[in-house]
């Protein structure tokens, strides 16, 4: 399932060339990931109470088109589950006309907050706190 969040580029997010600062692409991607979890019924407090938290292990961003102030975009988010302790978020930042401005792949995991180690079955752990695990692709 591909989840999507609308975002409008704000003036204070621009760099000296007048386009979206490269670090803000990552902020947009993170915003979409948290909104996906929220749509699944998972709040940060639920995760903390359960002794777990999502972490980023690796990020790859391909910047394809510039974004400028007031551009309206959709930030997509799709969870790809695999065997083991990590999973992927495949994300795109798209202009309203469908132009892909960035491709983002995030490798993540679920950290046991006491042991400080990744949990072995992240999909199962997230599904246990989700009220609508369908958003997680589970």
What would you say about this model in short?
The protein is α+β, with helices and mostly antiparallel strands.
Features:
6 strands, Thiol Ester Dehydrase, Chain A, 6-stranded antiparallel sheet, 138 residues, elongated, 38% strand, alpha+beta, 3 helices, single chain
Question: What is the number of helices?
Answer: 3
Describe the oligomeric state of these chains in a short phrase: single chain
C-alpha termini separation: 9 Å
The CATH superfamily appears as Hotdog Thioesterase
Instruction: Report the radius of gyration as a whole number of Å.
Output: 16 Å
Whole-number mean pLDDT: 97
User: Architecture in CATH?
Assistant: Roll
User: In percent terms, what proportion of residues is strand?
Assistant: 35-45%
The chain-level structural class is alpha+beta
Shape: elongated
Low-confidence stretches: none
What's the number of extended β-strand segments? 6
Topology pattern, helix = H, strand = E? EHHEEEEEH
Count up the domains: 1
Considering DSSP H and I runs of 4 or more, what fraction of the residues is helical?
10-25%
